[in-house]
Amino acid sequence: MQDHIVVLTGAGISAESGLSTFRDNGGLWEQHSIYDVATPEAFARNQELVLRFYNERRRQLQSAQPNQAHQLLAELENTYRVTVVTQNVDDLHERGGSSQVIHLHGELTKARSTRDPGLVYDIGYRDIEPGDTCERGAQLRPHIVWFGEEVPMLEEAAEVVRTADHLLIVGTSLQVYPAAGLVYEVGDGVPITVIDPGAPASVSRARVIRKGACEGVAEWVQS
Ligand SMILES: CC(C)NC(=O)[C@H](Cc1c[nH]c2ccccc12)NC(=O)[C@H](CCCC/N=C(/NCCC(=O)O)S[C@H]1O[C@H](COP(=O)(O)OP(=O)(O)OC[C@H]2O[C@@H](n3cnc4c(N)ncnc43)[C@H](O)[C@@H]2O)[C@@H](O)[C@H]1O)NC(=O)OCc1ccccc1
């Protein structure tokens, strides 16, 4: 039975693809307040501003490419069972070749109905405009988990982490919950590796590789 490698990723793994992280200097949350662009209240207050924020990020994503870290994780599937649990809303894991990706916080390339959350549409890199509606005439919104909103994939992700033979954590500050709490679901004695140049100190007994994702994942794969 192949070992099961679970990879928990954050914005840091896409930094070397040119996508800005959230908390680093010049990060997204420096340019925009979470409360103006990433909460249901913000959407109710100023739909146009929120849609523009995600349209800009979707356009940025269209010109971004998966990097060596994304590709190396995909190649691991030749030898191991690999599941990626990501906080990222970009599609770079899939474009890098990963086949098992759980998006905890949604996907930029999808939209959903504001009336019926079950109505989800693939929109590629198209903009969502005020007046764009679902098949029942309700405004569309980004298929993203905003702050204060439930994380529907949480239990499925926790189940995956519980079955890990190795937990690899790449490019996340582990400051957003309940996603950050997933590291505590790993089985006793299961090896944990953190790859992050500014590694958060919070993951006890983890092996830490203080390097960027591309160099760090390459080093880990060789080890
Ligand atoms: C700010 C934080 C304290 N707040 C929260 O966690 C809140 C509130 C909360 C809940 N429980 C708590 C417990 C304690 C405290 C607070 C809370 N959580 C919520 O609101 C969650 C929802 C949270 C999800 C929000 N959506 C996102 N994303 C989509 C949007 C969007 O993308 O626009 S979160 C978003 O921010 C997070 C950013 O974190 P990272 O990805 O780690 O990025 P960051 O910039 O922080 O770090 C980058 C790292 O990379 C490293 N790095 C840099 N360069 C490189 C490099 N080259 N290579 C490798 N690494 C690198 C850096 O060193 C750094 O370590 C990601 O999760 C990302 O998805 N919902 C909820 O609790 O709902 C209730 C509920 C329950 C049931 C029913 C109804 C309601």
TrEMBL record:
Identify the keywords attached in UniProt to this record, alphabetized: Acyltransferase, Cytoplasm, NAD, Transferase
Question: Which amino acids does the record list as binding NAD(+)?
Answer: 10-29, 87-90, 171-173, 213
Report the top EC class in one word.
transferase
Q: Which GO terms describe its molecular function?
A: NAD-dependent protein lysine deacetylase activity
Localization per record: Cytoplasm
Q: What is its EC number?
A: 2.3.1.286
Q: Supply the Pfam families for this chain.
A: SIR2
Identify which residues the record assigns to the active site. Answer: 105 (proton acceptor)
Q: Which domain of life is it from?
A: Bacteria
Residue span, Deacetylase sirtuin-type domain: 1-223
Q: Where does substrate bind?
A: 54, 57
> Main subcellular localization, coarse class?
cytoplasm
Q: Which reaction does it catalyse?
A: N(6)-succinyl-L-lysyl-[protein] + NAD(+) + H2O = 2''-O-succinyl-ADP-D-ribose + nicotinamide + L-lysyl-[protein]; N(6)-acetyl-L-lysyl-[protein] + NAD(+) + H2O = 2''-O-acetyl-ADP-D-ribose + nicotinamide + L-lysyl-[protein]
Its biological purpose: NAD-dependent lysine deacetylase and desuccinylase that specifically removes acetyl and succinyl groups on target proteins. Modulates the activities of several proteins which are inactive in their acylated form.
The text the record gives for the protein's domains is: 2 residues (Tyr-54 and Arg-57) present in a large hydrophobic pocket are probably involved in substrate specificity. They are important for desuccinylation activity, but dispensable for deacetylation activity.
- Give the protein family: Belongs to the sirtuin family. Class III subfamily.
Can you say what this protein is called?
A: NAD-dependent protein deacylase
